[in-house]
Structure formats: C-alpha cells, structure tokens
Amino acid sequence: MKKIFLSMALASSFMFAEEVKIGVVLPVSGAVGGFGELGKRGIDLAYKAQNKTKNGDPIKIVFVDNKSDKIESANAMQKLVSSDKVSVVIGPMISTNALAMTKIADDNQTPLIAPVATNDRVTKGKKFVSRISFADSFQGIIAANLAFKDLGAKKAAILFDNSSDYSIGLTKSFRNQFKKLGGQIAIETNAQAGTKDFKAQLSSIKAANPDVLYLPIYYNEGALIALQAKQLGISIPTIGGDGLVSNQIFFDVAKEAGEGYMVTDYYSTSSKQTPKGEAFIKEYEATYNEPVSTFSAMLADAYGIAVAAIEECGAQDRVCINDKIRNVKDYEGISGKFSLQNGEAIRSAVINQVQNGKLVYKTTIEP
C-alpha cells in the first residue's frame, strides 16, 4: 500500500511540475562567433550545475544562434517571447545586436539580461533590460585614467570601428575623460570590422607620434592590428576594452605582437574569488582544458540570477522576475560580488595585461 501511495505522489508531483523556459541568444556563427561559443560554455556549465528550480521544476534552455547579426537578433527575440513564451532571455554578446532586441523586450514585458553588452544605450530608458557588466562610460574612464595617470601619456591615438556601437561608446568615454585630465587626442582613425589591412591607419598614427594607443575593437581585427603595428615599428603602450583579447584567436594570430597589451575587464581568475568562482574555474578547466573565459563566467552569472528570480516569482510572472533581476543586491556570483540598480551593474573592474602569451591580472578598480 505504501508503494502505491508513493507512486501516486511521484506521479502527481511530475504532473504538476512546471517547465521553466529560459531563452538564450548567442552568436555561434558569423563575425563574433568566438564570443558566442565562450558564452555558451558558461550557460552549459551553469545548466549542468542546476537544471531544475529549488521546487523541482525542470528548466529548458531555448537556444537561438543570431549569426552575429542584428536582424537575426531581433528575430530571435521575437520568436522567444511570442512562440516559445520564455520567462527570461539571456544574450546576445555585443551591443549592436542587443540594441536590436531591447524594444521587443520592453514591448512584451519580458526580461532581457544582456550580460556583456556594454554600450550605455542598451539599458538607458529601458524597463525590461539589465546587464551584469559595467557600461562603456565606466570602462572608457578607467582606460583613460590608466593611460594618463599610470602610464603618463599626454598624447593618445584612437583606432576604432565607427560601425560598432560598442566601439563608438568606448571611444567617446575615453576621449572625454582623457581630455578632461589634460591629455590631447593626437589622431582618431577608423578600423572597420572585416578589414584585413590597417597599415594606412597605423602609418598615420605613427606619424602623429602619440604616447599611447587606445584600441576599443574586437579580437579579429585587434590581432591583425597588433601584427601590422609591430611590422611598422610602433611600440607604444596599447589599451583595449573587454572585447580585444577575449578570444584565443587574438593570442594565436597576434603572438608576440600582442605582448604588453592592456585591457579593461570585469573579471580575472587571478583576482580574489568567491566560492562559486573557485568551483567554476575547477569545472571549466577540467571540461575545456584552458583558462576560464570572462564571457563564460558572465553568462553563467546571468543564468544564476535569472533562475534565482524565477524561483522567487514563478515562471509565469515576468514582471516580478524582471524586478528581482534589475534590483538584485550583493549577489555572490562566479565573476565576483555585484549588485544591480534599475538594471545597471554596480561592480568592480579589473585591468589585465598580455604577458608571455597569457592574460595576467594587474589590479582591481572599484566603482
């Protein structure tokens, strides 16, 4: 008789279990497919660690490849909110693609966590969009302070991509802060995504004789610029944003030409770790046999706060889920301890530097 009752209880529990759907939009193909692959690793490991809520509800990941494209990103977001009816969406990776999704999130009252989309406009004025990285306005200031105060640079060159919201935002922030400190922008020139030859731009930069080069672009073009700058005999300190050396491609292509490059970032495995961070590093290195990617850690944290919010609110109450995500306080994640205030992260930043072909932690900058 006890066995019958137990079987009935288990069957009843299964019948009333509520499937939780979390949408994930990442580029695993296209120009920044490397970013998406690293982000997906974080989601995969986080899901492996927790694929049910604390109430036993199964979690389903509904994954869409946006192919590194903003139209594909918008289509993916529309599908997830209209057809799949997910509780929350995580992704994409870059600001341009995130900006194509934010209005759909607000219009459909579906929370969107854009973990590493750093352009200020991604969250500005939005009610259902959050991020757990810092914004470009903060990141650019840190880079300018590093250049002027720590490196003693008085003249800066900026090589940026004027087709990228990410690059434009970082450039504006760096430029304003560097000039505010008393520095001079000697030259600004364009490094269009997809370009292979940057020698003309680099020759102009060399002629301007700057003390530092600010390079707020992604890893594919960044690696080629490093190689060509070395070929032209440019040996000034170079500072980039979080996207510059964020993929192994940069190290494989740039090799020793990237030595000494400095970047602003959200996280380092060499900084002080939370218990979650220590466990994640161990699992990641055992699974992928390489150092933890910042993007993997950030996407895993996005999954963590999404699940925590769903556990508090239930899968159907997206307004409640959104409120919990946008105002999470003192969350001890994989990438460190952080809070969100109206969807904007309050967290420290780190400076990392390429040394002997690896990214080495230098220091932590508090907000």
From TrEMBL:
Transmembrane segments: none annotated. Pfam families: Peripla_BP_6. InterPro entries: BCAA_transport (IPR051010), Leu-bd (IPR028081), Peripla_BP_I (IPR028082). Residues 1-17 form the signal peptide. Keywords: Signal. The keyword Signal applies. Residues 19-357 form the Leucine-binding protein domain. Belongs to the leucine-binding protein family. This is ABC transporter substrate-binding protein. It comes from Helicobacter colisuis.
